[in-house]
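Fold this sequence, please.
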Amino acid sequence: MSTSTSTSTSTSTETTAEPLRLGYGTNGLTDLRLDDALGLLADLGYDGVGLTLDHMHLDPLAPDLAARTSRVARRLGELGLTTTVETGARYVLDPRRKHGPSLLDPDPDGRAARTRLLVTAVQVAADLGAHAVHCFSGITPPGTDDDTAWKRLEEAILPVLDAAAFAGVPIAIEPEPGHLLESIADFHHLRTSLGNPAPLGLTLDIGHCRCLEPDSPEECVRAAAPWLRHVQIEDMRRGVHEHLPFGEGEIDFPPVLAALAATGYQGLTVVELPRHSHAGPELARRSIEFLRTAVTKGAPAP
């Protein structure tokens, strides 16, 4: 069922350009304590943070989660940062399986564990006042046909959507290269299969658009605009799923950022460099400088 064919819409969403709200992902700052990471981002001038729930940053499985979340909420408030909760921690549920178990796991107990984690993330997001909860489908397990995989995904995500509706926090599922849901077209397949539930939105990763979508990144932004709930951004090359610092890939960012601003999107646009934590503070500085310059270059002439 997975396909890279784009899904067009007739809905026009372009409005007066909105200032972009820039963030940086804590999965690219794992060598820093969370308080230090948040302080760094505030000092650099970021508007917010993509907060990945993981053992080193607001562990979702450790005791006293509500109290720890409350402390993080106060810290965010003191620093003037907003947040999106991200759930892509590599080994938070299983120390031996990257991103396992997923919503597609052959074991019903495994799928249930992932569902519980996402429901917990919704509560954390509500307590933090977050814009959205990010998630992804996972890779189709060996020996599993597409129909079975889609059915598992639909069943496993329904309790998460119910929790999101109750909490008033949207779910932003991310098309991820190599996953069952890997393209914008796949997002639309899930959305329509579930009856277009209001809490279900889209995480658009700009690098992934360059990696595998048939349309350009700026065209992807325009097509996805009605469902955008979270945006991740980094550089990337065609056909290679490798998150790169800005300037090391093939993306022309000024038109992408101009297209994003023109949609009226008001969530965070979060730099996603999870394999560069060793240089996180310096890359955070370089990234916001690059993006500010690209925004200026892409802005329409007065």
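Residues 146-167 form the longest helix (22 residues). The domain at 21-298 is CATH 3.20.20.150 (TIM Barrel).
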